[in-house]
Amino acid sequence: MRLLSRDELEPLATGAWILGAGGGGNPYLALLNLQRLYEQGTRVALLDPAELADDDPVAIVASVGAPLVGRERLSDPHFAARPMLALQSHLDCRFRAVMSVEIGGTNALQPLMVAAVTGLPVVDADSMGRAFPEASMMSFAIAGLPALPLAMADIRDTEVIIPRAADPQWMSRIARKVLGEIGAVSATCRAPRTGAEIKQHGILHSTSRALRIGRTVHEARHRHGDPVAALVEAERGRVLFGGKVQDIERRTTDSFLRGSSRLLGLDGDRGAMLTLEFQNEFAAAWRDGAVVATTPDIICVLDSESGEAIGTEMIRYGQRVSVIVLPAPDFFLTPQGLAATGPRAFGYDFDYRTPRN
């Protein structure tokens, strides 16, 4: 276990925003909250999952809902901790640590905010290795572990606990209905996972990966290099397209942000067109009508100069962007993983395409 320094917070946020694959919510407001807490003397400890005892209970926390709404309802550490405290009381237990559902976007910083106000350490792991839109896409759900109970809290002092559901899909459906009633965004805490379950089924050291990605981008900026190229080389990714946003269409349905964007190619991609479709996160890409990238690979839209991620709720006409693909965690490339997170899980009538470098 080690303390995260204040200087690590911004690279962590940068890397988490990239791993969000366009979703997960911009971590900027959570970053400001954490920087303020650090200025007040708070420190957050990062715990290696190997140090967990097999029976240690770990709270799995997240902010859920439509990213566009999340930009209007600002992050707050005490609000982030409420569902964890409610679930701890409901289960009459004491959590050993907290962990993120997903390392992508603002949820990478959600457990840090909870840790800052509760004193618990943050486990260096998550259940997605990126951001995904549904609870059934968690590694624990794919492994068949129960996802309940689930605690939810909103800004109106409402707390909801779902103690039972038939399966993760039903839990997600019920939670989405609750989410719609309380304003399309909520802080949550999911069924605690044991240390043994995390070590066997979690995506380990994903917080460290986000921090490494952020440092790569920041160091490239500092030396006036190309942060996109540096990131692709360091993380074994590939550049998919470079161009300018020509068109964007999005809508919020069932607390998801859905839509598509078309990019016109520039430089080496001049004359070509890339179409991206998303459900909170970018799910698939077509170059001139041919599928060239799909979930669960991590499709990222980055500002071509700064390497900063651009979320599905923030992409706009005229932006000059680079689209890259980072490899998905191996867990999601298994038959069970692809069944839950591949393109067919998003309603597409085609299978996962193996990347071509």
Written description of the protein model:
This protein is an alpha+beta fold and 357 residues long. It has helices spanning 6-19, 28-39, 67-70, 77-91, 110-118, 139-142, 168-181, 195-201, 206-222, 227-234, 335-341, and strands at residues 2-4, 44-47, 57-65, 97-100, 122-123, 125-126, 150-153, 159-162, 185-194, 203-204, 238-253, 256-265, 273-279, 281-287, 290-294, 298-303, 320-326. The strands form 4 sheets. It has a 7-stranded antiparallel sheet. Strands 4-3-9-7-8 form a 5-stranded mixed sheet, sandwiched between helices. Strands 1-2-5 form a 3-stranded mixed sheet. Helix 2 (28-39) runs parallel beside helix 5 (110-118) and helix 4 crosses helix 5 (110-118). The model has no long low-confidence stretch (mean pLDDT 92).
Q: How are the SSEs placed, and which strands pair?
A:
Elements: E1 2-4, H1 6-19, H2 28-39, E2 44-47, E3 57-65, H3 67-70, H4 77-91, E4 97-100, H5 110-118, E5 122-123, E6 125-126, H6 139-142, E7 150-153, E8 159-162, H7 168-181, E9 185-194, H8 195-201, E10 203-204, H9 206-222, H10 227-234, E11 238-253, E12 256-265, E13 273-279, E14 281-287, E15 290-294, E16 298-303, E17 320-326, H11 335-341
Parallel strand pairs: 2-5, 3-4
Antiparallel strand pairs: 1-2, 3-9, 6-10, 7-8, 7-9, 11-12, 11-17, 12-13, 13-14, 14-15, 16-17
Helix pairs in contact: 1-2, 1-9, 2-5, 4-5, 9-10
